[in-house]
UniProtKB/TrEMBL annotation:
Residues covered by the Amino acid permease/ SLC12A domain: 15-383
Highest taxon in the source lineage: Bacteria
Keyword entries, A-Z: Amino-acid transport, Cell membrane, Membrane, Transmembrane, Transmembrane helix, Transport
Predominant place of localization: membrane
One Gene Ontology cellular component: plasma membrane
Protein species of origin: Staphylococcus felis
Residues spanning the membrane: 17-38, 44-69, 81-103, 123-144, 156-177, 197-217, 238-257, 277-297, 329-355, 361-382
Protein name from the UniProt record: Gamma-aminobutyrate permease
UniProt xrefs under PANTHER family: GABA PERMEASE (PTHR43495), THREONINE_SERINE TRANSPORTER YBXG-RELATED (PTHR43495:SF6)
Keyword Transport attached: yes
GO biological process: amino acid transport; transmembrane transport
């Protein structure tokens, strides 16, 4: 455990995928129906409006990272340009957010593994996930980046295939006997905004939360090769990719299926692939959701550990958390975060005794991360 300096081991392709992977989570694959239920087809517009907010945040962070590439990123910017208390709150909000996200994702992995092994206690896969991802983060930052690159790639390929299949259904009748579905579902069943502006604004608040994770680009700055060039490239490229993937997938969902029947449909991704003849759709999406959950947990370990390292560097946590191993990894911070995420395994044992339904447990835990996740965004804009 020599020195206190992190290593610049992340490449341009890795940091772009880290941002994409951190933003595109389990919710898009399994939880999109809940958001659509609030606002109907106008959810497309909600994603566009939220995308504008995302654009402003990314541009603001990109400018600061370009001038001052550091691991503490937005927490350090809040300290320097606002007040040390602002930086302290920002760092802890980010740590809490990602540990809670990691806990929720561990719960999700355990539940989705039961698709293949129904009798398997859901906490067992959670333990293995934590051990695997802790090891990946402890080996080197490059190993973390490579894990996240392939996790994100699986999600992105699935989304692209879903969009292509959906456009085939909408415009060419692929899997629908050659009869194009058309755009009628956007205006039928109560209209484009069936629940009015109240439903729209409620959905908008959830949609904004779904973009959380994109700020991971800033945290990678301190461990990125040629940060000025790579971060600028990542910021400019990631914004549009996120919007295309999210809006493209949501457009397909609300166009192919009546919005008011989605809750009973299950996963729109499974239904769409099944429609075009992919018979293993359910198992395929289950695998993708597991990788999405592991990606979220992986990002959580990385992000929280680097923020703990930053606080320790600033003298706000014990110096042991500034220790960096010979491979450039702040091992003690990684271990501390993984221990925090392990609480998710304990919750997966205890909460089923109190709350009915595994999905409810995931939602309750995950929802605790949304408000803390907004704090870094506002601090980025204020800085």
């Amino acid at each position: 455990m020599e020195g206190n300096e992190l290593q610049r081991g992340l490449s341009s392709r890795q940091i772009q995928m880290i941002a994409l992977g951190g933003t595109i989570g389990v919710g898009l694959f399994m939880g999109a129906s809940s958001t659509i239920a609030w606002t109907g087809p106008s959810v497309i517009f909600a994603y566009l409006v939220a995308g504008l907010f995302l654009f402003l945040i990314m541009r603001a962070m990109g400018e600061m990272v370009y001038l001052y590439p550091t691991t503490g990123s937005f927490a350090n910017y809040a300290t320097d340009y606002l007040h040390p208390v602002a930086g302290y709150i920002t760092a802890w909000a980010n740590i809490f957010q990602w540990i809670v996200v990691g806990m929720a994702e561990v719960i999700a992995v355990g539940e989705y593994m039961r698709y293949w092994w129904p009798e398997l206690p859901s906490w067992i896969p959670g333990i293995f996930v934590i051990l695997i991802l802790t090891a990946a983060n402890a080996v080197s930052v490059k190993a973390f980046g490579e894990f996240e690159f392939w996790f994100a790639m699986i999600k992105i390929v699935t989304i692209i295939l879903m969009i292509v299949a959906g456009f085939g259904l909408i415009f060419f009748g692929l899997g629908n006997g050659g009869n194009p579905i058309g755009l009628s579902n956007l205006t039928e069943h109560g209209g484009f905004m069936p629940n009015g502006w109240l439903g729209f604004f409620f959905a908008l608040s959830i949609v904004i939360g779904s973009y959380q994770g994109v700020e991971l680009i800033g945290i990678t700055a301190g461990e990125t090769k040629n940060p000025q060039h790579n971060i600028k490239k990542a910021v400019n490229g990631v914004i549009w990719r996120i919007l295309i993937f999210y809006i493209g997938a949501i457009f397909v969902i609300v166009t192919v299926y009546p919005w008011d029947g989605l809750q009973e449909l299950g996963s729109p991704f499974v239904a769409t692939f099944a429609k075009v003849g992919i018979t293993i759709a359910a198992g395929l999406i289950n695998f993708v959701v597991i990788t999405a959950a592991m990606s979220g947990c992986n990002s959580g370990i990385f992000s929280s550990s680097r923020m703990i390292y930053t606080l320790a560097q600033n003298g706000q946590l014990p110096k042991i958390f500034t220790k960096v191993m010979k491979n450039g990894v702040p091992f003690y911070t990684v271990l501390a975060v993984s221990t925090g995420i392990f609480i998710g395994v304990i919750l997966n044992i205890v909460l089923p005794m109190i709350i009915e339904g595994s999905e409810s447990i995931f939602v309750y835990v995950y929802s605790a991360s949304i408000l803390p996740g907004m704090i870094p965004w506002f601090m980025i804009l204020f800085s």
